[in-house]
Amino acid sequence: MKNFSQRRFHKLHEQILLSRTFSLMLGWCIAVALPFAIHIGFRDINYIDNGQFNALWLSSIAFVLSHTWCNSLTASYPGGRSAFLIAPQIFFVYLCVILGTFLFQINASRLIIITSGLITLVWLYIEYIFTYKYRIPKLAVVVQPNTQELLALNTIDARPLSTPILNEKRYDAIVADFSTITPEWQRFLTQCALQRTPIYNANQIFESITGRVRIRNMSENNIGALLPSVFYERVKICLDWLLVIFTLPITIPVVLLTAILVKLESPGPVFYTQTRIGQGNKPFTIYKIRSMRFDRAAPEKFAGEDDPRITRVGKIIRKLRIDELPQFLNIIKGDMSLIGPRPEQPSFVEEFDKQIPFYSYRHVVKPGITGWAQVRQGYTANCDETKIKIEHDFYYIKNCSISFDFYIILLTIRTMLTGFGAR
What we know:
By secondary structure, the chain is α/β, with parallel strands linked by helices. It folds into 3 domains: 12-135, no CATH class; 138-210, Rossmann fold; 230-293 and 306-418, no CATH class. 53% of the residues lie in helices and 9% in strands. The protein is built from 15 helices and 8 strands. The chain has a 4-stranded parallel sheet with strand order 2-1-3-4. It has a two-stranded antiparallel sheet with strand order 5-6. Strands 7-8 form a two-stranded parallel ribbon. Strand 3 (173-176), helix 7 (183-194) and strand 4 (199-201) form a beta-alpha-beta unit. Helix 3 (50-76) packs antiparallel against helix 4, helix 3 (50-76) runs parallel beside helix 5 and helix 9 (230-265) runs antiparallel to helix 10 (312-319). The chain is flat and about 70 Å long.
């Protein structure tokens, strides 16, 4: 998501108070320097041992990484302005630092590092609460047919601009549909750009804010630009394998326990297989833990929110995504990845391909156990919802990266805790 934060705050005191540098320096004093001084008892610097000095440096590094990462995530992806995402990032950074002291046998006071981490968590939440309303983009949106959806979004402060006059109001940017703009508006936008006010295309801002790529016709897009890099795909395969291997001590007992509960509750096989369409439109066999009553003759259809076929155990494992764990085998076989568009059944793919000509383009990447569409929209149950799902899938394909995948993992954890999209 584009960072519009300080464009409208051009006064000196506004720029200082809302600047990342000021926030970083003030946060360091509170979250690093203060706990360090308390632990050493404000003693003379000559009486501080190496362990305390090393803890100061490591706490400083951890704080800077946490602060930078949180702010970078906020500005980079749709939905980044979420309080839920702060704690996991801080926990991950400080955990890596503490594990590093054991791994490399660094003499450092871990109590100082842990205290710094706790204060960092509190400080970044306080900063989030008090600056949230100032970080919401305030955009002047030129009133045009293709900009109406932007005005309806509640994640930005979008103000309609029906005449080429700003009336001395301050905005972070001006948004217009460049394909239908008149010469009068072109001259107005040119003057705004000369006054250092950013000008953006409506389609670009829509993607940045909603996390969806609007594709009404494939000719509107450079198809090659949506292809992920070969280097990224290879790195992703390695990371998928590492994740599967390192989590086996946890996933195997969970799957075995779940299998026993499923077998005790209802008759039928514990695991079931199904044909799905994967990368390159190639069919493959997917593995899942059964969460519904067993009926071999049941027709293929979407699972609703309160589907009567779902068992009591099934409701729990679907909410927590435990029923998807056997798909780690699909990752090892190379059929799937951890992150990617969800694979659909052949009959659904055939039907959607008739209604949505560019539907199969989502198969340019490997399907995933979780994905951008799942954490943003949840599962779909009809053609209209599927069109929106495809827009999310295309956004992922267009912007896929390791950092984006990690962001999706964080949102997946939130989804597991809240049950959003658990169908």
